[in-house]
Write a structure and sequence with these properties.
The complex is a heterodimer of chains A (410) and B (190).
Chain A: E1 7-8, H1 12-15, E2 20-28, H2 33-43, E3 57-61, E4 71-79, H3 85-94, E5 101-110, H4 117-123, H5 135-138, H6 143-165, E6 169-170, E7 185-186, E8 190-195, E9 200-206, H7 209-212, H8 219-247, H9 251-257, H10 264-270, H11 283-287, H12 290-307, H13 316-321, E10 333-338, H14 342-350, E11 355-360, E12 385-388
Parallel strand pairs in A: 10-11, 11-12
Antiparallel strand pairs in A: 1-12, 2-4, 2-5, 3-4, 6-7, 8-9, 8-10
Helix pairs in contact in A: 8-12
Chain B: H1 12-35, E1 42-47, E2 50-56, H2 59-62, H3 69-79, E3 91-97, H4 101-110, E4 114-119, E5 147-149, H5 153-165
Parallel strand pairs in B: 3-4, 4-5
Antiparallel strand pairs in B: 1-2, 1-3
Classes of the chains: A alpha+beta (410), B alpha/beta (190).
């Protein structure tokens, strides 16, 4: 893990140190284990729902060097909060178990289940633990994976620079986003959503707050909107091609194919990745009336899909076979130059994003590590992994004034 | 929860009925969302005693989990060409359900004056139920705003319950809910 160019933003549960609770324990001969466990199950209040991660029995070899010399077991009874020591002694004696147990005492065991391997390794010496690493956490990144992820991260930095060149420039006098601002600030923030299964870039965007005069046109929300519009047009295309297959009429898509894409960003992005269906939300698009906006972006999406080589008439059958529609941004990765703000972080929860990679934290508004950890909040219904790419140096993300970052929501 | 600081004693009665009038309109929009198989939430933005924008949840239709009522309304207001984003600094929001974390911070960025809501949002609530985005002092960049609940609370709750006992075919794995029963008892607010 230490060689990775990024590190996970861990939850408080994943980073917490050892906390302990007290439980009653006693030594027994191995052959008595079954009887004692039955006795515990029958007579003592069950505390092991909250201590499922703690092994009930610990094996202690009589001679660590020669394991053949036999062992004894230490068995756990229950949390000390559930019964007094005296009551437990009376219960044990009255059932005749005082003859087969020895050294009834209080032991400390880890209070919480270990979530990371580091916690497991640190805590297991206190008491043997069960540990089931979440498959997502256990997943190792190959060198190839890292190269691909790095190329996406480099792409969003390019998008941020594109935003800057387009003058996504917030002037506080014309556009008072924040009452804290004194100087005009450049906010070049780039973002992309990728399907990691096919390594396809589904959406690219940058911050458009300045050009749209809309304080909520953050790059992440723009990207989510592009994915939604793509899915709408993809479903329309599916319906369309289904109808055509039925009518055995393929003249319509060919007509549409003749139309040209007049989107320079779309072409630009094709330089970097061959497989791509990209739309950058532009101010014209955003500024329009809602209904018009939806249909116009829809149109351009259909054209892009139809002119893309992977959607030629040959592959219509496979397109049709992908009967399961995409659900929001489920299982997709999001790359963004800056840590998403609280709004965008929650938008990613609503969109069921798979993973998020960002390059710079935003200490005054960040929702994925800086102020809150919305990606792992216990009361929210969707959790995802977040990684910070701290190997990317500050100057790669072109802020005119680096310190102004702290004044911006991303 | 319903207590509100009123600057002028004479206006108390009329202002309180105004709140319910605006919330009535928001509820109508929530009903419209329900009829369209959307999560039944509606809202209106009020500027100088005038509704300047309204919206209702459209997440299913838009295939976009962020198209909440507030965002629908905000986008209509800003795309109308009549207002700049400064208008929200003099606006009140009336929304049938407490804004979620996303909307709560969106409203803070807009500098909203105050928020009135119907029922609390125990799952995503951003103005008191789960997070305190509206008044968390650690969020330095934008002003805090008050968020007051309880306007037509019962009706908002019943509408949500009706929605959630209905099956959602848009979910990736739709749950069969024919055994669910619509509860009609409502506990008092916390």
């Amino acid at each position: 893990m230490s060689n990775l160019p990024f590190r996970p933003i861990l939850t408080d549960e994943e980073t917490r140190d050892l906390e302990t609770v007290e439980v009653y324990a006693a030594d027994i001969e191995p052959k008595e284990a079954e009887r004692v466990l039955k006795f515990i199950k029958k007579n003592l209040p069950s505390s092991f729902t909250s201590l499922n991660h703690v092994k009930r029995v610990r094996k202690i070899y009589n001679d660590e060097k020669e394991k053949g010399k036999g062992f004894t077991l230490t068995i756990l009874f229950c949390l000390t909060t559930l019964i007094s020591f005296v009551d437990l002694q009376i219960l044990i004696t009255s059932n005749g178990f005082d003859k087969i147990i020895s050294r009834l005492r209080v032991e400390k065991v880890p209070k919480h289940a270990p979530i990371t391997r580091a916690q497991f390794d640190a805590w297991k010496s206190l008491w043997p633990l069960n540990f089931h690493e979440h498959p997502n956490n256990a997943r190792k990144f190959t060198v190839q994976d890292i190269d691909i992820l790095a190329s996406h991260m480099n792409r969003v930095i390019e998008l941020a620079q594109l935003a800057k060149s387009k003058g996504e420039n917030l002037d506080p006098f014309l556009f008072p986003l924040s009452y804290f601002w004194i100087d005009p600030v450049q906010i070049p923030i780039g973002c992309a959503i990728i399907d990691p299964c096919t390594n396809t870039i589904l959406a690219e965007s940058h911050d458009t707050r300045a050009s749209t005069r809309h304080p909520l046109c953050h790059s992440v929300l723009n990207c989510i909107n592009v994915v939604a519009n793509l899915e709408i047009s993809s479903r329309q295309f599916k319906n369309m091609s289904n109808e055509q297959m039925a009518a055995d009429d393929i003249s319509r898509p060919q007509k549409r194919k003749a139309k040209e894409i007049d989107d320079d960003e779309g072409n630009e992005s094709n330089l970097h990745q061959p497989k791509k269906h990209t739309i950058i939300i532009d101010k014209e698009e955003k500024g329009e009336d809602e209904d018009d906006d939806e249909t116009s972006s829809l149109e351009s999406n259909i054209e892009i899909i139809l002119t893309s080589p992977s959607f030629s008439s040959k592959t219509q059958n496979t397109t049709r076979q992908q009967s399961k529609d995409a659900y929001l941004c489920k299982n997709y990765d999001l790359f963004v130059t800056h840590e998403p703000c609280v709004m965008c972080s929650m938008a990613l929860v609503h969109s069921r994003i798979g993973r998020v990679f960002y390059a710079r934290a935003t200490p005054n508004s960040g929702g994925l590590g800086s102020i809150y950890k919305i990606h792992a909040h216990s009361s929210l219904n969707h959790h995802f992994r977040v990684f910070i790419w701290d190997s990317i140096s500050d100057d790669r993300i072109a802020y005119d004034r680096i310190e102004s970052l702290d004044q911006v929501d991303t | 929860m319903n207590e509100e600081k009123l600057d002028d004693g004479k206006d108390n009665v009329s202002r309180e009925t105004d709140h319910y009038q605006y919330m009535r309109r928001a509820l109508d929009l929530a009903h419209e969302a329900y009829e369209s198989h959307e999560v039944p939430v509606g809202c209106v933005f009020v500027h100088n005693n005038e509704i300047i924008g309204f919206g209702r949840n459209k997440t299913n239709e838009a295939l976009n989990g962020t198209r909440h009522a507030e965002f629908e309304a905000i986008d209509t207001i800003l795309s109308s060409g009549k207002y700049t984003s400064d208008v929200f600094k003099e606006c009140s929001l009336y929304v049938t359900v407490e804004p979620c974390v996303m909307c709560a911070y969106a409203l803070r960025q807009l500098g909203i004056q105050q928020v009135y809501y119907g029922c609390a949002n125990e799952r995503f609530g951003g103005t008191g139920s789960v997070f305190n985005i509206h008044e968390d002092p650690i969020l330095l960049l934008h002003p805090q705003y008050p968020s007051i609940g309880g306007y037509y609370r019962e009706e908002a709750i019943m509408l949500l319950r009706k929605f959630y006992v209905r099956e959602n075919d848009n979910a990736p794995e739709p749950k069969r809910k024919h055994q669910r029963v619509l509860k009609t008892t409502i506990k008092p607010p916390k």
